[in-house]
UniProtKB/TrEMBL annotation:
It catalyses: 2 reduced [2Fe-2S]-[ferredoxin] + NADP(+) + H(+) = 2 oxidized [2Fe-2S]-[ferredoxin] + NADPH; [thioredoxin]-dithiol + NADP(+) = [thioredoxin]-disulfide + NADPH + H(+). Binds 1 FAD per subunit. GO terms for molecular function: ferredoxin-NADP+ reductase activity; flavin adenine dinucleotide binding; NADP binding; thioredoxin-disulfide reductase (NADPH) activity. Its EC number is 1.18.1.2. This is Ferredoxin--NADP reductase. It comes from Bifidobacterium primatium. Belongs to the ferredoxin--NADP reductase type 2 family.
């Protein structure tokens, strides 16, 4: 593969290019992108890791740093923040080979005639021999309650969509909305520190791990099902919230007076950039083969951003994709380098 550097020729106005040609740019610094950068450096590749958020760690750091994670091999009783701190230590151990850029959204991805790529952000461009897309579900936002309420005014003060600091809920009277894994996990975590926790769900059944549901039913969490939200009213400074509920197919219409409401209705995501970049996308997911490579040679995808038969969107599954992708691209870039048996 030729390594002609024609970055300058494609750089947009106001965007500074670099003469350097890196082996791989990892777009997205969630857990899978972080591990990808580390593993690429371990294979002696030069790496840039770029994330649009101010900190690395993706969904784990942004949405659930204090939630325990139970389903990663060898990672026992650790929180999201601990997992990201461990991944950061791995990156730091190859600090000289991994160039990390946060607060930078990759907006453009162009393939040059020689098979290399130029990525552009608002302020610069980078020339690379390969790209690994690890952007998760793209830009995401929490799904609010499906009623009219002062969403902006209450956000982060009395109504929450994720838990950044468990301590914020200590000694409080909290309502958790939702019936999935996250709602039940949080109800059980908050039970340990809150004064009282009520779980409100519009159905009688929960869509969560059976063991968690069993634990919930044995806990002190008050379960209100099937109830829907009618209104959420701010009771003023120094006071809490009034939450009006209505029983689904029933007459009960209780009002709860609580300190905080934690809504767990999932997230909406936007992966339109993949299409803008001309990449193969199906139902919002990047399509990859058994080497995690797209149909465009040199562009790979790992983690929540991709799909293929048998794909599981979990951290442990994403970690497993990384050696497959990186070892394959390493051999493409440096045919003399053989697959490693282990580190
Ligand atoms: C509440 C909740 C609890 C969860 N609990 C668990 C659990 O217990 N166990 C488990 O295995 N999984 C869990 N998950 C799922 C897990 O978080 C995801 O599978 C994982 O985060 C995927 O990692 P990723 O690196 O692929 O993507 P993400 O974590 O989504 O990271 C993608 C990163 O890419 C960045 N990005 C996006 N677009 C661009 C761009 N254009 N330029 C630069 N950067 C960009 C984003 O800013 C983000 O930092 C949970 C998810 C949620 C929401």
């Amino acid at each position: 593969m030729s390594t002609t550097d024609n970055t300058a020729a494609v750089a947009a106005d106001g965007v500074t290019g670099s003469d350097e040609l890196v082996d791989v740019v990892v777009i997205g610094g969630g857990p899978i992108g972080m591990f990808t950068a580390f593993y690429s450096a371990m294979r002696n590749l030069s790496v840039q890791l770029i994330d649009s958020l101010p900190q690395l760690g993706g969904q784990v750091a942004a949405l659930y740093p204090e939630k325990p994670i139970h389903d990663i091999a060898g990672f026992v009783s650790g929180t999201g923040a601990e997992l990201i701190a461990n991944l950061q230590k791995q990156i730091d151990s190859f600090g000289d080979r991994i160039d990390v850029h946060v607060n930078e959204e990759v907006q453009g991805l162009n393939r040059l005639d020689d098979g290399t790529f130029v990525l552009t952000t608002k302020t610069r461009s980078v020339h690379t021999r390969s790209v690994i897309v690890a952007i998760g579900s793209g830009a995401f936002a929490p799904r609010p309650l499906a009623i009219d309420y002062d969403r902006d005014g209450l956000d982060g003060s009395k109504v929450f969509y994720f838990v950044k600091r468990l301590a914020d809920f200590e000694g409080k009277n909290v309502v958790v909305a939702g019936g999935g894994d996250a709602a039940i996990d949080w109800a059980l975590e908050l039970e340990k520190i809150a004064a009282h926790v009520t779980l409100v769900h519009r159905r009688d059944n929960f869509r969560a791990l059976e063991s968690s549901v069993a634990q919930l039913r044995e806990s002190s969490v008050e379960i209100l099902t099937p109830y829907k939200f009618v209104d959420v009213v701010d009771e003023g400074e120094g006071a809490g919230l009034r939450i009006d509920l209505a029983q689904v197919k029933g007459d009960d219409q209780p009002s709860l007076h609580v300190d905080a409401l934690l809504v767990n209705y999932g997230f909406t995501s936007d992966n339109h950039l993949l299409r803008d970049w001309g990449l193969p996308v199906k139902r919002g997911d990047l399509q990859v083969n058994e080497f995690l490579e797209t149909e465009i040679p040199g562009i790979y995808g790992v983690g929540d951003a991709v799909n293929y038969p048998g794909k599981v969107k979990l951290i442990s599954a994403g970690f497993g994709e990384v050696p497959r992708a990186v070892n394959h691209l390493s051999e493409e870039l440096y045919p003399d380098r053989k697959q490693p048996l282990h580190s």
